[in-house]
Design a protein that fits this description.
heterodimer, A: 160 residues, mainly alpha, 7 helices, B: 315 residues, two-stranded antiparallel sheet, 2 strands, 3% strand
Amino acid sequence: MPILSLFVMKDWHRFNIALVAFVVANLTAFVVYVALPIAYARPELGQSLAEKVLAMEYAADFHPGANKLPSLHVAMSWIMVCAMWRQARHRWVDFALVALASLITVAAVFVKQHLWIDVIVGVPWGFAAYAIAGAVYRRRVSPDHSARQALVRFFVPSKA
Amino acid sequence: MADRARRVFVAARLLMKDLLRRRIALLLLFVVPALFDAVVLATTAPREVDVALGSLSEDFAATGTAMDKLASAFTDDGTRTLDERKLSLVFLGAAAVSFLACFLAFNLVHKRREVDERLVLAGYRAHEVLVAKLIVLLSLVALLAGYESLILSPWVVPKHFGGLALGLFLGGLIYGCLGMLVGALVRGELEGVFVIVFLTNIDAGWLQNPIYFAHSESKSLIRALPGYGPVQLAVVNAFTDDAPHGIVTRSLVWSALALFASLFAFGLRISPSQKLVWHYAKVLVLAYAIWLGAFELVGHYAATLHTHDLTRPAT
């Protein structure tokens, strides 16, 4: 979805806010990951193409398990929906983005990458991160700056 | 539509004309593969070696019964006895075509960036400029693959000439598309040359050597690389009558992926309205790299802690 946003975005300040929201969502999630590491048994996989791809994902994942609650797959998807909302020329794109984020949310459970609790927490986590990031960004960045300048000034204060 | 085709054709024709002016470079394009072959002939002895051709090996799933031993005896593990000198000629032929196609494509995209930007300002679309380059590249790769197949023939009489040439062509196509991608992504020429040398040497010039593959500890990694399909196709068609499994599809998928990525990067790079998109694409790559590093660090640490299973009731 972040790659998709490159083609949809008109107001690049919203992309900057999404980047700040990523930082907020990740840093807070990392605290929970360390405080409450979650592991659970994964299903036995067969030989179909989808299952082979999933097996690669399982093999690359942490053992016995980590970074589950909240689901960052889900949180980041909804952050991108917030950032891209009403940015496209056609309204149907907004609904397509919501549908895509919903599918990612459900798929995270169906492929056993996450539990229901992870995604249920992940959705508000994304919205909250975007709201906090928006508030912080607007406070620190002048509306006169271009998005490109604002991004540098936000992350590298010495250049302000 | 006809107008677009005409514009692409004009761009391709002029690009080819420009290339033909650089006679030494063109000459080297045909001397280098011959030099590769000459080095092999001068340094390699004709002797029989056992090699493993990954595309001929069949999966064998043990059932834990007494039939396993019998079943394994009928399973092809891809091992063939081949002449080392002939094998090296075919393998290095594929490597040479890949290497040259990659450099040529890099040059086509990287060297002419200002001209391409000017063409876009003058009304060309980014993809039309890239399609023109692709046409030139495909023509030269086809020429190179045919030429390499021909100069091999005094020493290697291939079982299937067409299959050998197709393998060499696909190697050139994949690495040509990757070369265009590097040309679009990298700002400095030296960085681009380093990336190309690294990519082609590691994959097409080393890991895909069937002699090395036989003893490799990580065959799945080698299979996943772009050079695997073309080298396997060339070697299998040169020396056997067997049909490799899924190799052409794999090569075409790699070509399509590399082509799509190069088209995407090139379009962002030269289109004036997309400069901000290009900037944010780079920001996104940087952000992703930082995020991945932090995520892995936290995950590896968290996995060493006492974990909780929320799917089971607490005891």
